């Protein structure tokens, strides 16, 4: 079970989460936690400020004080001893002073800095479970076999992780059974031995990695929304829950920008064929979204609409590109320079990709409807791509028009009668 930052943002939330875990007494869950609330963002900001503020002013950094106050308050409200996080907070202050002294913040140090968020949330939560009589064991992912590349800030999990994590968690359980409370988002670089992070939202990936390593029956990812929704609720609040998704759909959705899932998180679940359930810790009765290998697609038209803003488009016109392979593999800075030798190249910035995740076997119907809607809204699509994926059609529009497009498309596909049209078509064919 993975609980994101919003699920463990306060003492009250931690009590609720403990209640959710205890609601399944017959299960032996492994719990993965993110940092409390917005702690990761605050740590990043505190680090940036430390670079320029001088050692003696570190104690005045607003974000550092917010982090300290939140964690101390949580420990106090859960009636835990301060010693649970005392050492961590001391070390964190030392680290910020070190950054201030060096006037430098490398990617490696940034990963170490943000790791304090997960290290503290898990220590508090494990102590709380033990206090209420539920035996729990706090575990730092970088100590239990999460081995990654040394790409600080966006490390990849290496294959050796699966057997190592399985061995450690099995061994611990046999020696002394206790619910493992594991830090999400973190790993250990295989060359450097330093703490790494898996990219923002990486706790989802921690959870699915453990799921595959242990061959679990189900992976649950608890969020602050009722599941994966038909679009980002911050863009258009009429979004509704998508009850079922395939791994492929969920992966495309995440990859093309839906913040709800980490882009790489579906891979271990798909490889291990372990269902993933996305649930709302604020509304546990809601059924959520169930993500599996396959689902019945015959009535499916569109599943979800995803927006990725601020993308740059390369418009290449050339008659000389036949046989010119490998040119995009060169460094991005050199791509335009290289292409200009063989083509007319325009760099078009402030574009947005709107991805229509759905049944590509209905592509003509989807595109017909989409273009009707966009034409009515006076929007010109600048590129369209169906690619290799069986579930994704992408349209590129100008950034300034993107939100309005999402709203119009959502209304047409999810609030009007497109399903009736498909049902009629299916009836007609049978
Ligand atoms: N298609 C979508 N479905 C659900 N949530 C989405 C979608 N697109 C964006 N979001 C946003 O993702 C948030 C949940 O992801 P995240 O912040 O990583 O949660 P957590 O911190 O609980 O893991 C939601 O609060 C919502 O605002
Ligand atoms: N705390 C990390 C990792 C994470 O997964 O967080 P969340 O589950 O709150 O998205 C982040 O903010 O990126």
From TrEMBL:
The UniProt record lists the EC number as: 2.7.2.4
Q: Name one GO molecular function term.
A: ATP binding
- A GO cellular component entry from the record: chloroplast stroma
Q: Which UniProt keywords apply?
A: Amino-acid biosynthesis, ATP-binding, Kinase, Nucleotide-binding, Transferase
Q: Which GO terms describe its biological process?
A: homoserine biosynthetic process; lysine biosynthetic process via diaminopimelate; threonine biosynthetic process
Segments passing through the bilayer? none
Describe which pathway this protein belongs to, using the record's wording: Amino-acid biosynthesis; L-lysine biosynthesis via DAP pathway; (S)-tetrahydrodipicolinate from L-aspartate: step 1/4; Amino-acid biosynthesis; L-methionine biosynthesis via de novo pathway; L-homoserine from L-aspartate: step 1/3; Amino-acid biosynthesis; L-threonine biosynthesis; L-threonine from L-aspartate: step 1/5
Q: Name one Pfam family in it.
A: AA_kinase
The first-level EC class reads transferase
The family database entries (InterPro entries) matched by this protein are listed as: AceGlu_kinase-like_sf (IPR036393), ACT-like_dom_sf (IPR045865), ACT_Aspartokinase (IPR054352), ACT_dom (IPR002912), AK-LysC-like (IPR041746), Asp/Glu/Uridylate_kinase (IPR001048), Asp_kin_monofn (IPR005260), Asp_kinase (IPR001341)
Give the reactions, separated by semicolons, that this protein catalyses.
L-aspartate + ATP = 4-phospho-L-aspartate + ADP
Q: Please list the residue ranges annotated as the ACT domain.
A: 355-430
Record-stated family: Belongs to the aspartokinase family.
Q: What is this protein called?
A: Aspartokinase
């Amino acid at each position: 079970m993975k609980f994101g930052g919003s699920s463990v943002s306060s003492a009250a939330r931690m009590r609720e989460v403990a209640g959710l875990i205890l609601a399944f007494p017959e299960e032996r869950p492994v719990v993965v936690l993110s940092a409390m609330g917005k702690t990761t963002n605050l740590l990043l900001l505190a680090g940036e400020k430390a670079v320029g503020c001088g050692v003696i002013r570190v104690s005045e950094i607003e974000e550092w004080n917010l982090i300290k106050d939140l964690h101390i308050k949580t420990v106090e409200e859960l009636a835990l001893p301060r010693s649970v996080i005392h050492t961590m907070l001391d070390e964190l202050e030392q680290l910020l002073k070190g950054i201030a002294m060096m006037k430098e913040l490398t990617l490696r140090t940034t990963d170490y800095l943000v790791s304090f968020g997960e290290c503290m949330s898990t220590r508090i939560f494990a102590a709380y479970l033990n206090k209420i009589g539920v035996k729990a064991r706090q575990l730092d992912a970088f100590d239990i076999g999460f081995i990654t590349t040394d790409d600080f800030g966006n490390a990849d999990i290496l294959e050796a992780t699966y057997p190592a994590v399985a061995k450690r968690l099995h061994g611990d359980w046999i020696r002394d059974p206790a619910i493992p409370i594991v830090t999400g988002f973190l790993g250990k670089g295989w060359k450097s031995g330093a703490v790494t992070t898996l990219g923002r939202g990486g706790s989802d990936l921690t959870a699915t990695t453990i799921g595959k390593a242990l061959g679990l029956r189900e992976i649950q990812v608890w969020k602050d929304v009722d599941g994966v929704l038909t679009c980002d609720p911050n863009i258009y609040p009429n979004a509704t829950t998508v009850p079922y998704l395939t791994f492929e759909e969920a992966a495309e959705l995440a990859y093309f920008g839906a913040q709800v899932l980490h882009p790489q998180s579906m891979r271990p679940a798909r490889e291990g064929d372990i269902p993933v359930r996305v649930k709302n810790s604020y509304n546990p009765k809601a059924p959520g979204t169930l993500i599996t290998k396959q689902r019945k697609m015959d009535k499916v038209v569109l599943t979800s609409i995803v927006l990725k803003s601020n993308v740059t488009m390369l418009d290449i016109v050339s008659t000389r590109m036949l046989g010119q392979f490998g040119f995009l593999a060169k460094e991005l800075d050199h791509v335009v320079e290289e292409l200009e030798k063989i083509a007319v190249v325009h760099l078009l910035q402030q574009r947005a990709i709107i991805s229509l995740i759905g049944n590509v076997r209905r592509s003509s119907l989807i595109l017909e409807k989409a273009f009707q809607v966009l034409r009515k809204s006076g929007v010109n699509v600048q590129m369209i791509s169906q690619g290799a994926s069986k579930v994704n059609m992408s349209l590129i529009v100008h950034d300034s028009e993107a939100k309005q497009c999402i709203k119009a498309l959502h209304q047409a596909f999810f609030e009007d009668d497109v399903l009736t049209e498909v049902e009629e078509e299916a009836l007609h064919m049978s």
